[in-house]
Amino acid sequence: MSEYSGEAKYRPKRYQSIGKLFKKRVPIISWLPKYDADQAVSDLIAGVTVGLTVMPQGLAYATLAGLEPQYGLYSAFAGCIVYTVFGSCKDITIGPTALMSLMTYQQVFNRNADYAVLLCFLSGILQFIMGSLKLGVLIDFISIPVTVGFTSATSVIIAVSQLKGLLGLKFESSNFLDCLLKVYQNIGNYRANDTILGVTSIIILLMLRKVKDIKLFGPNGKPTNKQRTIMKGLWLLSISRNALIVVACSIISYWCYRPNAEPYVTLIGKVRSGLPPLKFPPFGTEINGTPVSFINMCWDLGSSIILVPVIAVLGNVAIAKAFASGNSVDATQELYCLGVCNLLGSFVSSMPVTGSFSRSAVNHASGVRTPMGGLYTGILIILSLSLLTPYFYFIPKAALAAVIISAVIFMIEYEIVKPMWKSSRKDLIPTFATFVLCLGIGVELGILVGVGINIMLLLIPSARPFLHIEMKKLRTGLDYLLVTPENSLYFPAVDFMRAKTDRAAVKMGQSKLPVVVDCKHILDADFTAAKISTVLEIQRN
Length: 541
Description:
Distance between the termini: 63 Å
Strand order of the largest sheet: 5-6-7
Helix content: 55-70%
């Protein structure tokens, strides 16, 4: 008995730790047993509200990605349902976003939808591996200045790309500058009906966005019950503005539609009805009759295989922190979860997905209580795919363009420039560099160069540390130079430190003086700095 007593005591602890890990990685196990009717009602309201928001956005983001509209809905339901099981933040809704759509478009252009689905699959694989290896720390190297420049640039690119649908123009473009040039060249071919409908939709959307901020007060300074009801109605009107605009524009286009005549406005056309087939992601495809192998597809996707999942995780963790209410966010769990969302989503023809800040804000404001709200959103999208797709035919492209433009213009973070100028002007360098390069050479290379510039700025203090040099005298009358570095010493700073010390000695009229290095600010030094620096005496406080 005593021979196995140690093992008997160990087993429950081992099983207990496995159980805790399983609950941590599958959070639904923890909160589902406590799920009650009140939470179900709150989640149902929030889920339906988010569903009404994601339906028009999904259709719009699919067209932005260069895909058929139904792919946006395929991407919308898969991520929402999977996040219900693995998600750690009740407010986050997973689905297509403007940023992911833009990065997908770069890979789909002049190709086919198989590239988008494969990119979704590979993104999920990489995110899952990053979670397993706890590589979420890599995201910390993408600083706020780089993120601001990146998101602002992508917002401008997305808005310009939608001018084609807004003005009723017909052309193909490969990048921001090409799109801007072709808009200029084809501006004379704009369609008045599309333009009027699109501009009017943007104006109405921007007005409805502000309706939720209207506050009513009674004689005592507090709103009455009737006023609370009115404010709640205004809030519902505001958050469902995208769906209302799309429905209203669709009714107008249906009313004006004549079977044998050209439509008054450009329509998105036929949307494939029904659920997507459950199948493996494409590990090969065919373009213009030419077969393309899996290896060649990966080669064509290039750096996006790494950048798309990293940017997706960056956005998802940022949203989780925004709605965490001061609680810690498990970045590793978000990596796992987003990886599973993309991995499983690729089996239902999803494009890369991540958390949507706008829909997560709607979810939070709608009073969601648990991640179960995502399940209700997913069910609503599945019902729309099964029942509503014939009516999507009459949705005007100008209305979808208006939905996207009115959403992304608020992602341009120009207001952060002023506080950045006051606090750290050097941070403006990677911000503007990332912004300009993303517009000029593409979002993938732009953010890579931006991160590189930011890392260089971090390394400059190590290569060129600030040195305080002064002449001191011992009680014996011997003069010496006291050199005080303001930070740690590494090999790039050795020659700089030696040359600056020599110049200071010559300037003080003494070319040969003993040098004393005061190490009170040095927390670390590498072998080169320790070996080459001549230290005659260490002065300590």
